[in-house]
Known about the structure:
By secondary structure, this protein is mainly α. The protein has helices at 12-19, 23-54, 60-72, 79-89, 95-118, 123-131, 136-147, 149-165, 168-173, 182-186, 197-228. The longest helix is centred in the first third of the chain and has 32 residues, at 23-54.
Amino acid sequence: MLPPTSESFSLVGYQIVLEQGDFFGYFANSIIVMVAALVFVLLLGAMAAYALAEYSFKGNVVIGLYLAIGIMIPIRLGTVGILELVVDVGIENTLFALICVYIAQGLPLSVFILTEFMRQLSSDLKNAARVDGLSEYAIFFRIVLPLIRPALATVAVFTMIPIWNDLWFPLILAPGDGVKTVTLGTQQFIGQFVTNWNAVLSALTLALVPVLILYIIFSKQLIRGITSGAVK
């Protein structure tokens, strides 16, 4: 396979993408949805995991199993119910609807992974902090979270990629021009009879950039989280 030459190489696909439609708007929508969902998945997942790992209470095991079921059952099976709920609440065709769905989608895996990491943290360290007068919130934010950075990076990667690449929920919950995501916006170049593959591949290439940047940022911690399997 020969590399492209000056005669065969062309940026016409990128030109079409940037001139037709509101690609930067779609791009911004995807960024907003992904970042907002990721922040809440990590925060709420870490707080729930801390409660399950640190405290023994009635129903602890049952809650853990319930969240595990959320990993095994695809959220798309509840699409009709989700759509009805979104319409009843009045948030259809908004980014907020997508953010809520993606938070619900990412929380089970987040809690499952973070709980296992938190159970391996030293109890002596947390007890010493309590003796020094730190509150549970201070222990959580100042001691626990820094120690589970590899786990947080692992959850972040496994959460953000499905959100960024998703076409199903943007198509159903937020198909309007003002709230389209990058994946949904790319569909305008795919027709029933004619498909502009130059534009499609160019749009997908541009859409890869933020995910690649975030992966590079999280990669070091991600590798530590996957290979170690625990926090030392």
